[in-house]
Design a protein that fits this description.
The protein is an alpha/beta fold and 497 residues long. The chain folds into two domains: 11-239 and 468-489, P-loop containing nucleotide triphosphate hydrolases (Rossmann fold), CATH 3.40.50.300; 251-460, Rossmann fold (3-Layer(aba) Sandwich).
Length: 497
């Protein structure tokens, strides 16, 4: 940390609801603080998401905090997201504590007072460790800050802000409507000790001429008693990796004439859909997400993505007829790629003898790859490098990460897809069908060019692209946020804590 820089108070982005833009704003502010010479780090006490990421040490955290850490110019760490909840259904989830899977919890158990107290102690310790190393801490809340029925068990919103003595900026989404009511209610439903922490409001996702909201800005400040620190435009041209699957509702759903069409099967419990971001930003490519068998016709490649509940989603494939559509198109020579859970589905059998996904079960897979998977308690979480040889003899070297439960065994004569840096094999190939455990497999331009030869030379350096997006986002936020006011909000009177 640059000790020459003054100590800043933590800054929390709290929301009037879910999907109001907290994660993106946190990434942009991390970038701004870094540009201004500070050493920022992101923090979210509790995350609920199926999009996760592997730290350099081989632990698991929410994808959003990994993205924010990248924007801050640092490696991600479990202290940035000490508690990760990965839903497995309506009432259960896998709980990941300090990067390690700690079992499956029911909703009742997760919100038991003793369990919450233990979890609260853990996330506070993680914040303290992070705060001792970085300055400032850019915190992110979860959902709405005004879920008063959950206040006693809340460890991520206002109680966490109070523990950290953070300045809270309330983020309100004007695009969905009701911005005045949502902001006013979010402030007024707080008890006095929490209300005093809310120092400002950010009106996010504004469309049109911002001058038309000048009177609205004044009204909002009068109603809530706190200043509006900025009105942020709807930035459809800024692409920061998403974490919440709610964004899939805005994705394309059908093939496009003249484009290279990549169909991603929209599984009920799809995870790590960021695996397809490179393709989405490649010129001439139409990535579409579909749960309709008929929409697979017209694709140039089908991808079966990861999922938290592989067997359940495999049964869904069969119930909807997606299985027959996929296997039929594969038989016609269409490339089919399975990633993580999708790879497991493409095999002969998936066996869960101990019921780690819910109930003991054994299900026939799609039969596209000569492999068998057994779901087990051990969870593989790591970053890896891989090397593979194409049918034409070309060598492709790339990087990615693994996050999965279960082990997959290849039949005796099966062909592995690649060799990993530790000398072990990954995945399987069978004609035009390919399976891998590697998330980020499609981030590698040479892999895309091999699978889709029409795109050879078209895929840009995705790492450089992400860095440009962070810089563009920071520049936009500087234009519409009063950073001088924000710095005053997070400055200590004596410059030290």
């Amino acid at each position: 940390m640059n000790t020459a820089m003054r100590r800043l108070r933590p800054l929390m982005l709290g929301g009037t609801g879910s999907d109001v833009g907290k994660s993106m704003l946190a990434a942009g502010l991390c970038r701004i603080f870094r540009q201004d010479g500070y050493a920022p780090a992101p923090f979210k006490a509790q995350n609920m998401a199926l999009n996760s990421y592997a730290t350099p040490e081989g632990f698991e955290i929410g994808r959003a905090q990994a993205v924010q850490a990248e924007a801050a110019g640092i490696d991600c760490h479990t202290d940035m997201n000490p508690l990760l909840l990965k839903p497995q259904g309506d009432s259960t989830c896998q709980i990941v504590v300090d990067g390690v899977a700690a079992g499956t919890y029911s909703s009742a158990r997760l919100y038991d007072s003793e369990v919450r107290a233990e979890l609260r102690g853990g996330v506070c310790k993680a914040f303290d460790r992070l705060s001792s190393r970085y300055n400032p801490i850019v915190m992110e809340g979860a959902g709405s800050v005004a879920e008063i029925n959950l206040r006693e068990s809340d460890i991520v919103n206002m109680p966490m802000a109070a523990y950290a003595d953070a300045a809270v900026l309330l983020v309100a989404d004007i695009d969905r409507g009701g911005v005045f009511a949502s902001a006013y209610g979010s402030v007024m439903l707080q008890p006095p000790e929490y209300r005093r922490l809310i120092k400002g409001i950010i009106v996010n996702k504004f469309r049109g001429d911002m001058r038309l909201f000048d009177s609205g800005r004044r009204m909002l400040e009068e109603c809530c008693g706190v200043p509006v620190v900025g009105v942020v435009p709807y930035m459809a041209d800024i692409h920061i990796e998403d974490e919440d699957s709610v964004v899939l509702g805005g994705k394309r759903v059908a093939p496009m004439p003249g484009a290279v069409n990549v169909a991603v099967v929209r599984l009920p419990h799809i995870s790590n859909f960021t695996d397809f971001n490179v393709l989405e930003h490649t010129p001439g490519v139409n990535v579409y997400y579909t749960a309709e068998a008929g929409a697979l016709v017209g694709a140039d490649m089908i991808v079966i993505p990861g999922t938290k509940t592989t067997i359940s989603d495999l049964r869904w494939l069969k119930a909807t007829g997606m299985d027959e559509a996929i296997t039929g198109l594969a038989a016609d020579g269409l490339p089919v790629v399975g990633i993580c859970g999708g790879y497991q589905m493409m095999g002969r059998v998936i066996d869960d003898p101990e019921g780690y996904e819910g109930e003991t079960d054994c299900v026939e897979g799609l039969g596209l790859l000569p492999v068998t998977t057994v779901i087990s308690a051990d969870k593989q979480t790591r970053r890896i490098a891989f090397e593979m040889t194409t049918d034409a003899g070309a060598c492709i070297v790339g990087n990615g990460y693994e996050i999965h439960m279960g082990r997959t065994r290849l039949d005796q004569d099966a062909i592995a897809l690649s060799m990993l840096s530790d000398g072990t094999a990954d995945g399987c190939r069978n004609g035009n069908c390919y399976g891998t455990y590697i998330h980020g497999f499609l981030d590698n331009s040479e892999v895309i060019a091999w699978l889709l030869p029409r795109l050879s030379g078209c895929v840009a350096d995705y790492g450089a692209y992400r860095q440009r997006q962070y810089d563009t986002l920071a520049a936009r936020l500087r234009e519409c946020l009063d950073m001088n006011m924000i710095y005053r909000m997070i400055s200590y009177d004596r410059g030290t804590r």
